[in-house]
Design goal:
It is a single chain. The protein is of the alpha+beta class. It has one domain: Peroxisomal Thiolase, Chain A, domain 1. It contains ten helices and eight strands. Strands 3-2-4-5-1-6-8-7 form an eight-stranded mixed sheet. A hairpin with a 4-residue loop joins strand 7 and strand 8. The longest helix has 17 residues.
Length: about 270
Amino acid sequence: MINSTASAPIAAWIEGIGILGPGISSWPQLQALFTAQENYASAKTVVPVAELLPPAERRRAVQMVRLTLAAGLEAVTHSRLNAAALPSIFSSSSGDSQNMHAICETLASSEREISPTRFHNSVHNAASGYWSIATGSTAASTALCAFDGSFGAALLEGLGWLATEKTPILLVVYDLDYPEPLRSLRPVPDAFCAAFVLAPQRSENSLASITAHLAVDVSANKLHVPELDNLRKTIPAARCLPLLDALANSRSESVVLEYIEQSSLIVDVQICR
């Protein structure tokens, strides 16, 4: 039984998408996987060098930074908007898990001094900070965490921004894998990042319009590619994959995404023709 908690859903137009994950190098490649033009080949996430960063920051750029920059820039490039002018939302279930592991190792050793680089990468808004350095953006930025529901929380936050500010916004959701021993408690298998540019009005570049509302007692959509469905189930940021499946296949439909506890997020997709 669906119990909607929103009486007037807010519409957004998707202007650009960026994606990077295990065996996925870009949005066009993911489209090819969802439309059966390519077969999925399992592989570790390959994260490119952050060429936009100045040399000093580039040397300090950890995987989280390079991951979010790559997907964010792909989305903005597709949108044809100015990255420096876009406000942003960065959301993750746990931030830089690899950096957290390194800090815990240091604190558990006899040499307990943490490097400044480790420390500044430990804050939850580190990804958005590097984004502003790389793009020259001084626009507003929000860093969110809602554990496994971090994608849904970011999407709702983005829709709220569009309703109040009436300007486009970049949404970036990401997760990294944990090394052992934390991995046994938090078994996220690999790094994954998805980025969306959302706008309050349709443009000639718009891919689809979406609205969203909360519901309970509704099962999330599964994916027909088993390996991609496994990513959906094991990486919190990858809960957006059923939405990307609908977009890749140009399907106007209602997509159910896992959110928090017993609640789900229903995203109604209308493809631009």
